[in-house]
Amino acid sequence: MGKERLTLGLLLRLGILLTTVYVCVHVYLDRSWRRTPAPLAFEHPIQSRQNLGQQSRTKRVSAETEEQDRSIKRRISYVRTLKKDSPAKKRDENREVPSSPLNPHRKTPRWHIDLEPWASESHSLEEEAKRFLSYITTPQVSCSPLAGEEAAQEGSKGTTGAWVVCLDPKYSLAHRIQSKHCRIYSFGLGVDDRSLERFLARSGCEVHCFDPSLKQPHLQQAEMWLHRLSVDWRDPSPAIVAQRQYANTKKLATILNDFGHRQVDVLKADMESAEWKILENLLLEGVLDSVGQLLLELHLHWAGFEVAGDDPSVVRYWFSLLKELERTNFRLFHVQNDPAKPHLFLHKNVLNASSAYTLSWVNTQWKP
């Protein structure tokens, strides 16, 4: 009995020992199997960090490249701007009469006219009209002598000499006529009375008359040049020009460039209610810096082409344009209304105002 118990005890202990060894070996092998891909698992983050480092370095390099590209582009655009300007500057330095009409001291073109304050808090038409009419009927500078009245009375019946120029020695036109270097631009639609133009042509001025109703593009007649062209406040669409093969309306800046003229001693314009938008364009683009005297017929019976707003706003806009003209050193020296025209002011009888006034300004700072 004792030997049997001893044998069973040893067998039991041996079984427990083998079981323990088996469990330990199993656990060891299981851990070793799980630990085997561990280096791969650890290598992947290392590679990711390397890739991230490479990506970050790549991003830094690309950012630096983009910044260099931007700076290069800026330099290129600046150089291109200089290249565009340099020929004009070289022409200004090397040629006595440059082809560009641009004044080197001209202000940067603007996009809109600054409106003057209202004439009164009521914003009434009567108050706006009173201020406007008082402004256009009060000469700001005196001028003697005036040229044009006698020529008009001699050359055409029924004319009253509304178109006049100032030949006062304190302004440049008189000296330009003496030196035979004056240039005249005259814009109109089917104008019959060209007595002032003929007078200035006989005085030795280079006279250009623009009329889109002419049959020929350019024609020399007596002492004057006639052109089938008119001034506008915008250039025509390129598609329209390609279709018609000839544009009969252009901005004054474009016409000056096309003709190779920098200065105009006298600019005369009768634009049949387009004068307000044309004057606005001339002011915004600074073209009037190249003009010595401005003769303009104003039509007041309606607002004018593409001028919107109620009646008081329209008159305020008119007044603001003329004040802008004054700020560009133009001063009114002559005004005359047309007695043959009806007394209509925006389709109304306001202060017995005429529907048409011819105004003459001189650029007091103009020195060609």
From TrEMBL:
Instruction: Offer one Pfam family short name for this entry.
Output: Methyltransf_22
Task: Supply the alphabetized keyword list.
Answer: Membrane, Transmembrane, Transmembrane helix
Q: Which InterPro entries match?
A: Methyltranfer_dom (IPR025714), METTL24 (IPR026913)
Any transmembrane segments, and where? 6-29
List all Basic and acidic residues biased stretches: 83-96
Region Disordered: start and end of each range? 49-69, 83-108
**Domain Methyltransferase: from-to ranges:** 124-334
State the PANTHER family in the record: METHYLTRANSFERASE-LIKE PROTEIN 24, METHYLTRANSFERASE-LIKE PROTEIN 24 ISOFORM X1
The name this protein carries in UniProt is Methyltransferase like 24
| Organism listed in the record | Seriola dumerili (Greater amberjack)
